[in-house]
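[worker-b] picked up task from shared queue
[worker-b] task type: protein-ligand structure
[worker-b] ligand name resolved to pyridoxal-5'-phosphate; SMILES cross-checked against name lookup, match
[worker-b] sequence length check passed
[worker-b] input payload:
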Amino acid sequence: MIPFSPPRIDDKVIDAVSEVLRSGWITTGPKTKLFEKQITNYVDSKCTIAVNSWTMGMHVFLHWWGIGEGDEVIIPAYTYCATANTIIHAGAKPVMVDCDPSGFNLSIPAVREAITERTKAIVAVDIAGFPCSYNEINDLVKEEQIKAKFHAATDVQKKLGRIIVISDAAHSFGAQMNGKRTGSLTDVSIFSFHAVKNLTTAEGGAISFNLPDDFDHESIYRQFSAKILHGQSKDALAKTVNGNWRYDVEEPGFKCNMTDIQAAIGLVELERYQENLDRRKQIFEMYDRFFSNEYWADCPIHTTTDKTTSYHLYQLRIKGIDEEQRDLIIQKITEKGVSVNVHFIPLPLLTAYRNRGFKMENYPEAYAKFKNEVSLPVYYNLTNEEVQIVCQAVKEAVEHVLGRQNY
Ligand SMILES: *Cc1c(COP(=O)(O)O)cnc(C)c1O
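[worker-b] inference finished, payload out:
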């Protein structure tokens, strides 16, 4: 079976983790701090806090920004559930918008239409690693009539004076727009280092800050270092130094720090990340070459004059089929020993959001993207031969199903 996206766990990773295990310091410490610095350098943000998941990074961030009861946060309908759940747990209302007809990312005109006097944030999701149209989103929130609608409820909101733009960059670590990487394209970006993501720490995430210069990012870094550790004024490592045991709890915080065991994996992953991106790019290009010759195939847009994907997911679409045919195609592909996936089931199709009143018919583009989508395997050591096996398996499965429908 060709797997969908196995993590790269080799001797280099095992040695790095063993070194941490043997060092006597396994929780947040020097490796985590180094990992944060290297992410900041790589994405060119103003500071970065490593956490134990994208989800917890988002929770802590929304708490700090003061998002809660009565607030609205705009998100795409086409995303993973974490994007909505964190907003719901903050007590705010997720407001979903449809995909842009050109691709899987959210529609900017739909975002504009969704803005009300209660809108506090826009969470743009870089689906498959392809950056959203951040020039347009960043310009939109700065328009005078949009700013006039905005009601700041907390000091940080007052300071910004407009809707904050949050990038759900769970897929897009290393992606670029206008020569700048995600992490430096919006006010704040949150990454996921979950096992299936491009860069993994088994579980993990990071918040990269890039707020305007009148925000003190050194102070933000200090505040968040405490916030992710119960609000304790000193972390465990600081307390071990020279009988420095006494600490204060400045506010009730969260508990979602990254450990040095995780960071050790991340440091190895980051060191060879370009190699990973280069291989992913080659695989994308092989899929493009193969499928662009098939009349039924709709290849994903992953590179434009101003944007380059992080090559996270290859979202192939099969023209003219419905959900049932897609599911049958997936079954046939699986029978040929190839693992594929679907990204994503739009949120309005899931019980939790349907029960909150979201209706799929209000998101026709998202449904159109979902119903004929199949994500193909992409990872560092998928060989050229395996790519050809995937291509053939998809072609045979599609022809089998389309043939049966008398196409
Ligand atoms: C994976 C993912 C998340 C959640 O990341 P975790 O690290 O598992 O919390 C959020 N948003 C999107 C789009 C994702 O794919």
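[worker-b] attaching auto-annotations
[worker-b] Residues 384-404 form the longest helix (21 residues).
[worker-b] releasing lock
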